[in-house]
## 1
Amino acid sequence: MNLENKQVSNQLEVFSADIHRHIYEVTTDWCRGQNPKTYAERHIRDIQHFNKLDILSSGLDTLDAVRCLYDYRRTAIFANDIQKYVEPGMKVLDAGTGTGILAFFAASQGAKVIALELNEATCQLAKELYEYLVNIGMLNPDLIEFVCCDAVTYTPTHEFDVLLSENLYTGMLYESQCSIISNLIKYLRISGIVMPASLESYVAIGCTNSVENLKKGCVLVLDPALPESCDYFLLTQPVLYDSIDFTQTCFEGVNKSLNFIATADGRANVLWIAGTAIMPSGTSISFSDCDYFTEPVLLPFDEEHNVLKGEQIRLDLIYSYGCKPQDINIKMSHEWD
Ligand SMILES: C[S@@+](CC[C@H](N)C(=O)[O-])C[C@H]1O[C@@H](n2cnc3c(N)ncnc32)[C@H](O)[C@@H]1O
């Protein structure tokens, strides 16, 4: 990932509605003002942290929800699609509201929003933020109802025009997006909108020399300045291995056999996975231009394989959506069937 390009493209993305930019600025300032030391101090970009969480039953940490908010380009792209598709009087369901930021954008369009959040502390933060935005006259009161609950089992009392659900992790790991959508899509009106619309996942075979980091398990690729980052290079081109359409109800997980041709010599010791979400407008949010969103992960192989340029490699990949990276079943062999 080229960090210079990343910064350039971050700067290019703008909020198309001034009200959304104002809401974003006030919301991020408010969060920084709550406990700036903790937010700045914690290295949240650490996959070990995610491994410790029980996201399926308790949600993310509040700081992780705040981190999503800070991912400027991701949040701006969501705001722009909300501006495009959410109209006054519409009913919006925001599953996994976090800081409430997407609910605030939708409410500023004049929609009535039900905002669901599993983590009680995060839900409380979102409520307080909403009160604050109402008090300073930025949003109207009584537009958002926050419900602290599990979106996987929540039963809406009426149909919705728009379903917002940003519970996406690289490769559809860790988070409950698919179970949440399966539960809630039944309550979306015909031709209603789901945001994001789909997720594409890419895989490649790579080589890293950061063996110490590998021993600790899979790692995020990350800023090279961070101690948990890994230097690596790819031994094959990335291949699209999964495309999940969130307007569907049935998600089965991944069970794929893939063929690669090595593009370099090296010791194949990691699997590289990255993702791109596609919005209803067709705008894509890719790992290459966000701060955290669908960031690449490296998963260590049980054993290394020496690979020669031009060699044919077969990869079998089996896992359930929402599982932890170490639960992915990976098998690499040197020749195609
Ligand atoms: C990736 S964050 C996104 C937050 C916010 N929507 C945004 O775009 O900034 C996902 C949020 O969903 C919450 N969450 C995860 N699983 C959930 C579930 N099953 N039901 C309700 N909320 C959930 C997490 O606790 C977290 O706050």
## 2
Amino acid sequence: MGLSDRKKDHVRLTIDDRSAYSYDAGFSAYRFRHNALPELDIDEIDTTATLLNRAFSFPLFISSMTGGYSGAARVNEIIARVCEQENIPFGVGSQRAILDDSSAATTFSIARKTAPGAFIAGNIGGAQLIGGLSHEKLSLLIDSISANAIIVHLNPLQELMQPEGDRNFRGIFDGIAKLVEDSPVPVLVKETGAGINAEVAQKLLSVGVQVIDIAGAGGTSWARVENLRSDDSRKYAAFDNWGLPTVDCLVELHALGIAKNKIIASGGIRSPLDVVKALCLGAGFAAIAQPVIQTVIKDGEQGLVELVRTWKNSIRYAMLLLGAARLDSLSAGHLVKLYP
Ligand SMILES: Cc1cc2nc3c(=O)[nH]c(=O)nc-3n(C[C@H](O)[C@H](O)[C@H](O)COP(=O)(O)O)c2cc1C
């Protein structure tokens, strides 16, 4: 199966509830410490969030998803327009297709054409960096969308589950270190739903990666997605729930002292209150994929505008109910852990 058919299949399967982990990302283990006397006016609540020195209207990143086949252009166009209008950042899906065939670039470049002022991140797999990415290839990725940043995705679980996936993961770290040296824009690293533990995060930050997007377990299970695509979906079903839940990753990274502005929490963020809990637990930003693609496919652009506005407002309401006028005052003290 070709790369573009695979990307099309991914959209079809990730909007199917069967592609979710059978446990949540860990947010249900926490309740908020409601403040009945907040002494705040809702108009004072400031949801402004900073990522890579740029201010956004609230801390929600639309995760890397698609590109490389004709239907993807429409999805990227919708996401781009909404993100520019609502002033939130987003990433396009893996741009690997451009490296093989430069005509695939239009399904990504539509994002920049639609949203000239938006923050748009490019995306490439760690495996594509083994041995180093040439300057020419790096320019293709960045120039196709005038990228503000480049995201490297790590996905060994997903690759192993794909019959046609990569099997060699040696050399990815050196490839990332070289990319950091060569790239004119900041480099971020994300998983795709199995999580980034504290040691891996620290190693990546030590070579100049600027932000880690946890992309932990509890949301979209890429083992399940790939198993659903396979002829024998039960063969590697033992891995369907493999991964470190998002909250476990967050707690590990926070305990190691990794600063909030270096952490994006994602993987199984399914409500604006999950965003607030993630910020209390040490993230500076949160990101979502599945809720966005599901909304775009079902309810189109207007549906996505509504989702984004409702999440922003809900975060404001939650901040008021916690007595927090600014995001940087959110802390673990605003939560109660239900069980150890
Ligand atoms: C349809 C779809 C396509 C995706 N494609 C990519 C991709 O090309 N590159 C990438 O880094 N992550 C990709 N992801 C993973 C997401 O960016 C995200 O890390 C993961 O789905 C976990 O977030 P969620 O639980 O909110 O879905 C994709 C996710 C979805 C739903």
## 3
Amino acid sequence: MNEQRIDGQGGGLTRRDFLTAAGAGAALAGVASSVVSPARADGLIHTATVAADPGALPPPIRRNHPVHHDVTLEAREVRARLDDGSEFGFMTWNGQVPGPLIRVRQGDTVTLTVRSASTNMRPHCLDVHAVYGSGGGALATMVPPGGTAREFFQCRYPGAFIYHCAVANMDEHISRGMFGMILVEPQAGLAPVSREFYLGQHELYTREPFGSSGLLHFDYASMVREQPNFVLFNGRVRGLTAAGIGPMRAQVGETVRIFMVNGGPNLSSSFHPIGNVWRRCWPQGALANAPLEYVQTQPVAPGSCFVGEMELPLAQSIKLVDHALSRVARQGLLAEIVVAGAPAPGLFHAIG
Ligand SMILES: [Cu+2]
């Protein structure tokens, strides 16, 4: 049995605590890289960032038999930085966006405990796309602030699936950050790669325009029109670059696998690695199917996932973008993989 309790009642979960908890076959790993501070006068927990570390995910599964997992997710409403000059009221699973990647194998069973921090203001619940169950378990996991609910499920089919809050205002809650991925590995497992990264796209609807300072406010009217001011990776402007929590890093000659979940709630992503290609990818994260090969730009619908692999023959900066490029140029969406190594002029060089 893999037992996971991710304790964060009232904050206080540190990265070291989390990594300790994530040892030995854990189904769950990763947390926002900052320490959560206690609630302040506005009732919300304040934290520097909700952006999940893209390298903090459980390791590939190497067993050939099913096991049972105990997984705990805590709904946590927090106030955190959107960029260096602005803040936003996020809603999160375990204080991070996207929520922790839950990693299991086809046939595994899970006891999922959903808790809600006592500092929260709203009810929350979880719809898990990897399970047969009414509402994906949304009713079974509905919790008020301070509440706890539990459910059992078996993961019968493989793939990368979204989980997300599914209360009446689900679009707002997902936009504010309440989504993540459950990866159900096929029984044959996944091919070995050098590194894996995990990130999540979503859009924010704010009263204030992009680039505003101070605390920004959610705007229902622009959400109904599906016209966000921010499109983000991991809840942070230019989230996975030096302007956010830092780029991902790899070495020439390695192969990397990217897991991407698109929370939306409304915008599809046209997911593209600038300066590279998806060597193999699985549309919708549907791992039971043969991969597509050498794909430039792969659609990722809201409420769906993507699994793709890249070869890294060249030292370069690879930008991961939604190729609806106004979202990159004007709405804050950007991630970067810095690939270190010797030049390969036979492959590419500027002539001048
Ligand atoms: Cu919610």
